[in-house]
Amino acid sequence: MERRNFTLCLVLAIFLGLLALEKVAGESFNYGEAMDKTLMFFEAQRSGKLPENQRVKWRGDSALRDGNLQGVDLVGGYYDAGDHVKFGLPMAFTVTMLSWGAIDYRKEMTGMNQMGHMLNAIKWGTDYFIKAHTEADVLWGQVGDGDSDHYCWERAEDMTTPRNAFKIDSTHPGSDLAGETAAAMAAASMAFKLYNSSYSSLLLAHAKQLFSFADRFRGQYDDSIQSASQYYTSSGYSDELLWAAAWLFRATGDKYYLKYVADNAVSMGGTGWAVREFSWDNKYAGVQILLSKVLMDGHGGAYTSTLKKYQAKADFFACACLQKNDGYNVPLTPGGLVYLHEWNNMQYASSAAFLLAVYSDYLSAENVVLKCPDAQIQPLELLNFAKSQADYILGKNPKSISYLVGFGHNFPLHAHHRGSSIASMAVLHSTVGCVQGFESWYHRPEANPNVIYGGLVGGPDKTDGFSDDRSNYEQTEPTISGTAPLVGLFSKLHGLSETPGSHSQKSPATYHQTTAGSYDKGKPAPSASDVVPVEFIHSITSTWSIERTTYYRHKVIIKNKSQKPITDLKLEIENLSGSLWGLDPCQEKNIYGLPQWLKVLQPGGQTSFVYVQGGPQAKVSVLSYH
Predict the structure, then answer these.
(1) Alpha helices (H) along 225-345
(2) Minimum mean pLDDT among 3-17, 40-54, 190-204, 266-280: which range?
(3) Residue 83 known to be catalytic
(4) Which residues, 6 or more positions from 208, have their beta carbon under 8 angstroms from its beta carbon?
(5) Catalytic residue among 84, 117, 414, 416
(6) What mean pLDDT is predicted for residues 542-561?
(7) Which DSSP helix (H) or strand (E) runs through 485?
């Protein structure tokens, strides 16, 4: 009798445990969809002549004469944020972060069929840098200026503001700008190495020249390009020199660059600065984590003792983020978001999250435990923290709002972004003038007519408060430097939810991905305490372009994760614009059932359907079942 009672208790405990796991799983997000939308954002930020496979259709060609006044071709690159200035320093950091994601999470991106879009996003930046690097010691670092640009509210396609270009050279140096661009080119060369070796070699040649230029002619770029000083003020260039050298060592294996970071570790602050921020301006934490990987990979050689000092500072950053640093911690909002600066704070959260995700991987690969002043930390805890930041961004926050525009059902509708807030050229053919844009579009209470999918806005204040107001640029303006780290981060998290044998097996509830819908049409989604017995696994199995439209073949696996057979399953499929195979349509619009030959979905059983369409994936939810 005791044995029988024990068995019953054990079964009950396991059952309740499974329910708890499913509850947490239901709170996870579709990181694959989020990743796809962040890449769409970079297409929306393109300057220059747009390609035929451009997916963001409300954008058009713009700034086709950039550089003409200076006799150089500077067409292309990215607009920085909601304006139309091409700032070189944050653009280069953006490309470095995109490339780092492509290098470390190549497997995940390839599995999602997103590597092509990722490389296109990187190449749009590196092609521009190749143009801008006109001589060994000359780099054009900015097109347009913030003052005149901010006086106007107009579409990029209508731009009337001056397009003056600014450069750094041997007499007007900018070691921070040249160093970051060298890092971007070196990282991008690694991203392209398996796909386009000749282009990879070209990028590496530019990276080496730019690093030499940055090191030989030292100075801050905003002393040479003074119009950048009030928008992207540099705190110094030592971190960028170390950053560039670290990336060049990773790209080449040349010990010259490893010797450089060792010889200059003290004088440039690499082993002296213990920081709590990683951003377009402050690269120290990134340098320290890159060099920690060199150490843990066993490539330190004669420089091992110095690399250990770099790793000590990397550990400081990680411990500070996890609130285990003897009081010297990264500030968090009550809702758990990294909070460092009032203006566009979300970029610091996204950068920190990406950095902890890669550091978790490096530590895990060598079975190294992070020793913080307040506790010993397993690598998985770093990843959990990175996930917490990603989840906050996507909607798990006190406001229940997604700060990634276009993701989820509740996201900012009034992003501070010129092109997004004005009707597209296809809808409004007439020119929207500089002042007219303010009068007719900037002050409108209505939502932006063009959704700028995937843009990470500035985010909430230190108490998790947020105002979705177009004039509230500190909170509602999206930036390329803030969004770039998310591409790699979302790829990592998507891989965890899809790949057996990863961290997700250690903590399946944290990373498992489910899509829950409502049981009855018109009713709200079930609460976390309800258990939806169906799991949807989305993937893109093919892509192709016809004229200017890109189409995707989506495959959706329907899996019965319960212990009971399911019959009469009804699904609601929203935002479906193409053809669908594998389900039977019902009389009600957008409602589908299982095919006639499959009357019962057995426990653990699965079936699938496919659909083809352009643009984002459809939304699939459970309507009813027995």
Answers:
(1) 238-252, 255-263, 284-296, 304-321
(2) 3-17
(3) yes
(4) 182, 248
(5) 416
(6) 73
(7) helix 480-498
Cα dihedral 608→609→615→618 (10° resolution):
-80
**Residue of 22, 36, 80, 83 marked catalytic:** 83
User: Each residue of 361-391: b (16+ CB within 10 Å) or e?
Assistant: bbbbeeeeebebeeeebbbebbbbbbbbbbb
Active site residue 477: yes
Give 156-179 pLDDT, tens digit per residue.
999 999 999 999 999 999 999 999
Per-residue model confidence as pLDDT tens digits over 86-101: 999 999 999 999 999 9
Contact, 398 vs 335, CB < 8 A? Answer: yes
pLDDT tens track for 177-214: 999 999 999 999 999 999 999 999 999 999 999 999 99
**pLDDT given at position 514:** 26
Identify the CA nearest to 179 among candidates 238, 258, 97: 238
Q: CA 528 → CA 23, 233, 300, 409, 566, distances in Å?
A: 6, 45, 49, 17, 21
Range 27-39 burial, b when 16+ CB lie within 10 A, else e: ebbbbbbbbbbbb
Give me the mean pLDDT over the 521-536 stretch: 52
| CB within 8 Å of 49: residues ≥ 6 apart | 61, 64, 75, 76
Contact 127, 76 (CB under 8 A): yes
For residues 342 and 301, is the Cβ–Cβ distance under 8 A?
no
- The CA distance from 290 to 284, in Å, is 10
3-state secondary structure of 317: helix
Q: Which residue has the tokens 């996890």?
A: 322
477, 498, 535, 572: which one is catalytic?
477
Residue of 73, 361, 468, 474 marked catalytic:
468
Q: Which residue has the higher pLDDT, 521 or 499?
A: 499
Q: Which two tokens stand for residue 326?
A: 């003897």
Which residue carries 């459970």 as its tokens? Answer: 622
Residue 11 has which token pair?
A: 């079964």
In degrees, to the nearest 5, what angle opens at C-alpha 75 toward C-alphas 70 and 79?
Answer: 110
